[in-house]
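Minutes, project huddle
Topic: does the predicted pose make sense with 1-O-phosphono-beta-D-fructopyranose bound?
PN asked that the exact inputs be recorded in the minutes so nobody has to dig through chat later. Recorded below.
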Amino acid sequence: KEIFEQGSAVANTLEERITNNCMLEIETFEVEAVRILACGTSYYAGMVARIWLESMGIPCEAEIASEFRYRNPVVPDNALVVAISQSGETADTLAALNQASKLGYKYSLAICNSPFSQMTRVTDLVLHTRAGPEISVASTKAFTTQLVSLLLLMIALAKRRAEIVSELRALPSRIEALLQMDKDIAELSDYFADKEHTLFLGRGTHYPIALEGALKLKEISYIHADAYPAGELKHGPLALIDAKTPTIAVAPNNHLLAKLKANIQEVRARGGKLFVFSDSGTPIKSDELIEVIEVVKSGPFTSPIIHTIALQLLAYHVAVTKGNDVDNPRNLAKSVTV
Ligand code: F1P
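Predicted holo structure (tokens), as shared on screen:
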């Protein structure tokens, strides 16, 4: 249900641009550097935003909050700290914000799904992800709306606004089109249900999406899944490839595609089965070892969102095929407050 609510969750979150004065305030800030702090899925949203911001000339670091809270890095002038959290109650992220305040970050922003959470009370500004209540432990619509909020932050901070705005306008209908692929993706689930390991590969902004796809699969299907930047393959992970370990490649049609195709061939040459998620029309051929799953074509800023939803559907169907309780995976809590 929550996966299917993402078209409207994203459309609602876009309203923040019009209704939240925070956007105008950020435009008046002289931000020279950004530090993003978060845990779990929210951290992966930060990793994507780091690449976006850097591509626009804004130095950015994304860091796991549970590490940052114990470190004393040098703080650049006019730096903005951004905490990302679905719940706004995650203890490590709150502690990391406290550390950032002690270190002297000039500006602070929380991107939260709960407008009344602790986090929203300790930062200067708040961007509200309007995903609506997220009950399922595994985060889905909170993540995609976090990416939308981070794009709104980009619009306030950076250039190329028109490009981002036009992609965002098209996003809700592209999500609805992607969700139509549900049945096709469900058909893949049998292949994974009896596997013990799965490898995810991605590059650039889609490496964090590979991490998120792997996290969703392990959280709800209990299949061990690791994600690597595809260029790391030959530095270790290739040793894992065999006929029993499927690889999922997140391969949008962008400037990194040629490199990723070479990585796909490295897996194929070792007899590994590949499932390649790519924008429709991307020149990658299916064969006996490579299955290409064409997703709705989108631009560079929203492609991570589209690919994420395809991977959410895959994890969901594998978990259902295995008979797992997808909303309440074992050993996990929705909000980690200690
Ligand atoms: C962070 C997080 C979630 C994950 C799980 C445990 O929470 O790692 O991403 O799905 O619920 O906590 P939050 O800070 O985004 O609320």
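Observations noted during the meeting:
- The chain has a mean pLDDT of 95.
- The pocket of 1-O-phosphono-beta-D-fructopyranose is lined by residues 39-42, 85-87, 90, 93, 137-139, 334-336 (CB under 6 Å).
No decisions taken; revisit at the next huddle.
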